[in-house]
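dumping this here so i dont lose it
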């Protein structure tokens, strides 16, 4: 039937629920939030030549076959970031979006090596990002944690060098983790730097089981002692691993639109999110690199609803898991969980 004109103005209850529910995001690469418009602006400001003429050209180039084809373009985009203010503006543009989408808490990743390799000081990066995080805390009460990544396609000694650069900023960085190309780069070779990081009070997270096999998830858990697994969707290939992850309630930070864009699933309707939930895993939903994958957190939930039929209960469970799985202190978690429950009971579906 035709939609009555007045119905067009009333948001669909599911859309309103997805928008309004207080959310936490635990898997967000700040360099992946660089929108083409800002990329152009910073390129002009810093006198950097981009291999694109227009914003439309950039979006056109965002067609990826796999993780590596994305990473090549993503590392190139990050070259426009030069001074502290550039890192501030990048972070602020994400936080503004996050606040609009009712993200109450976010844990963002940054890739220092992408920048230090170009001669940018570690301090410049951290200070710019951190200033934006503080401002968002003041302006919206949006809390955050900062997580530093080591690029796994680089050597263990490069990771160690980066770790040493980070030590003076220890109080601004909550956790360390691995990202970049997964296949052929098992967690094993980074044991020493992760041991040292844990001894210095850093928490540990790792990308594993995105493109790589279940064995990489085991390594991330047993060798690096990761408290959370990013992606982790391939855990279903190992029943023993699933059992372990369920028993320990190790959180998985799943990124549905990212998985489709990078060809991990050929369509969202084939994503295994339902299976992960049914197995009793602690699953969360996140946007990964929203500027590149065409969607922030709400878009991810909305697409999951459209293509996988996830319902109110599922969304409640997923957002609850995210606050539980965060690195917030227990009292802060409780504050957000109460806010979440208040929203859901007030929504009265
Ligand atoms: N760096 C940015 N996004 C990433 C992803 N999805 N996997 C691995 N490394 C990344
Ligand atoms: Zn990621």
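and the seq i came up w/
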């Amino acid at each position: 039937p035709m939609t009555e004109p007045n119905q067009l103005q009333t948001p669909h209850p599911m859309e309103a629920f997805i928008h309004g529910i207080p959310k936490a995001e635990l898997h967000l690469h700040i360099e992946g939030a660089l929108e083409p418009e800002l990329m152009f602006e910073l390129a002009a400001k810093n006198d950097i030549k981009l291999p694109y003429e227009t914003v439309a050209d950039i979006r056109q180039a965002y067609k990826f076959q796999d993780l590596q084809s994305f990473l090549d373009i993503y590392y190139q985009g990050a070259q426009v970031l030069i001074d502290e203010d550039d890192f501030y503006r990048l972070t602020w543009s994400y936080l503004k979006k996050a606040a609009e989408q009712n993200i109450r808490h976010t844990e963002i990743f940054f890739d220092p090596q992408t920048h230090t390799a170009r001669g940018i000081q570690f301090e410049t990066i951290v200070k710019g990002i951190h200033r934006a995080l503080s401002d968002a805390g003041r302006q919206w009460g949006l809390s955050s944690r900062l997580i530093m990544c080591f690029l796994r396609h680089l050597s263990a000694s490069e990771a160690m060098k980066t770790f040493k650069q980070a030590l003076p900023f220890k109080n601004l960085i909550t956790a360390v983790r691995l990202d970049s190309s997964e296949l052929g780069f098992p967690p094993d070779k980074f044991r020493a730097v992760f041991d040292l990081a844990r001894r210095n009070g850093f928490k540990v997270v790792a990308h594993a089981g995105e493109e790589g096999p279940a064995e990489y998830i085991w390594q991330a858990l047993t060798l690096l002692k990761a408290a959370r697994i990013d992606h982790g969707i391939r855990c279903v290939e190992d029943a023993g691993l699933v059992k372990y992850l369920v028993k320990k309630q190790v959180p998985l930070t799943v990124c549905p639109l990212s998985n489709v864009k990078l060809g991990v699933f050929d369509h969202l309707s084939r994503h295994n999110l339902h299976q992960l939930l049914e197995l009793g895993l602690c699953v969360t939903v996140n946007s990964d690199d929203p500027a590149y994958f065409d969607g922030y957190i709400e878009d991810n939930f909305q697409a999951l609803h459209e293509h996988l039929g996830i319902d109110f209960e599922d969304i409640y469970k997923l957002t609850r898991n995210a606050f539980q799985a965060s690195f917030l202190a227990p009292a802060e978690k409780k504050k957000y969980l109460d806010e979440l429950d208040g929203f859901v009971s007030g929504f009265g579906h």
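The longest helix spans residues 122-140.
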